[in-house]
Amino acid sequence: MKPMGTIPADFAGTPLTIAGRSAADWVATAGDTPLFVYDMAAVEARIARFRAAFAGIDLHYAIKANPFAPLLAAMAPLVDGFDIASGGELAMALAADKPARTISFAGPGKRDDELAAAIEAGVTINLESAGEATRALGIGDRLGVTPRLAIRVNPEIELRGSGMRMGGRASPFGIDADRAATVARDVIAAGADWRGLHIFAGSQALDARAIIETQAATMALAGRLAEEIGVMPPLVNLGGGFGIPYFPGEVPLDIAVIGEALSETRANRSAALRDTRFAIELGRWLVGEAGVYLTRVVDRKESRGETFLVVDGGLHHQLAATGNLGTVVKRNYPVSVATAAAEAPTETLSVVGPLCTPLDRLADRVTLPVAQVGDLVAVFMAGAYGVSASPTAFLGHPMPLEILARHS
Ligand SMILES: Cc1ncc(COP(=O)(O)O)c(C=O)c1O
């Protein structure tokens, strides 16, 4: 038997309820499985916790984590900005009625048509290179629109212990810190609407001390750059990287401690940042724990002494849970038999999906209550990087259903 991660407190009861209704009820409402259910109250609770810990700091949502349209529409009035990474996400953010001036667009390889759409809409471009700066200015000229431009900085800092480090090395992301001030001065001199700095050092960190150190180093870097640039940045996006506990032994972040440290760091900032606003940009921390992926048991089989529950969902919808997105060793996300009564776990088995690859394993030798064909198996921690980060076209299975759950 292998351990699995801890089921989020929002869903800890047995049998499983989501926003006050059973899993079977949500499946009946949506019409079928596989189904992602996102509990809006759980998202709102995370936003409230952020607000309590980070007074005076803006909260941005990185919509790549979950761009489900009803979720974006519900989050739009609750957060200060949306961060987008493509022309497709631009359309999604605008469709959610997020005002363009609150949207920022980062990511390497922005095509001219994406830059034009963003500049025309009035979205801030986080410039990833000197070449992109030149193209953005040219496109602004051609359109007769002053582009809103910020510099994404490739910092010397890396976020220690993070699942994905994005600083401290040669990188396609951002302009190297030692060249960032020059590019900033050039775009300001060219007449751009100067929006400030974006410094993102990593993601999925569960070590509060590492985040505190990174934020302090990021603030110091922003101060040095602002002094060099000589024009105060209206906004400094300090990055994010708040992780969530997917796996056994992982402990949730204490964000109150991070908030206290940041408020001290901010109080001691460079005078060159005196009137600057600051933002933290989060994806998975806001939505990851709020999502449950519901699949139905299609088959039970024994093979060489092991039991397999074969379900109708898998890596084509929830790649990360199978250990194939950003992890090297397969560890188990929390799972449960959503239709089981309050019974103690009694059998050890693996939960596998319908794809003809051994990679399609949602849970490896976990102990669960006995489930039969027709029962529902829930995979937790499914609110971020599920549909939007999985190979949904692989093997021609249908797209999953998605639903935003609210307490009635
Ligand atoms: C620039 C940027 N912002 C935000 C995020 C979101 O990270 P997370 O979902 O871990 O908060 C990422 C992740 O790739 C990113 O690259």
UniProtKB/TrEMBL annotation:
InterPro entries: Ala_racemase/Decarboxylase_C (IPR009006), DCO2ase_PEP1 (IPR017530), De-COase2_C (IPR022643), De-COase2_CS (IPR022657), De-COase2_N (IPR022644), Orn/DAP/Arg_de-COase (IPR000183), Orn_de-COase (IPR002433), PLP-binding_barrel (IPR029066). One of its GO terms (biological process) is polyamine biosynthetic process. Residues 41-287 form the Orn/DAP/Arg decarboxylase 2 N-terminal domain. The modification N6-(pyridoxal phosphate)lysine is found at residue 64. One of its GO terms (molecular function) is diaminopimelate decarboxylase activity. Keywords: Pyridoxal phosphate. Its cofactor is pyridoxal 5'-phosphate. It comes from the Bacteria. The active site is at 356 (proton donor). Residues 36-383 form the Orn/DAP/Arg decarboxylase 2 C-terminal domain. It holds the Pfam family Orn_DAP_Arg_deC. Gene3D superfamilies: Alanine racemase, Lyase, Ornithine Decarboxylase, Chain A, domain 1. Belongs to the Orn/Lys/Arg decarboxylase class-II family. This is Pyridoxal-dependent decarboxylase, exosortase A system-associated. It comes from Sphingomonas glacialis. The lineage of its organism: Bacteria, Pseudomonadati, Pseudomonadota, Alphaproteobacteria, Sphingomonadales.
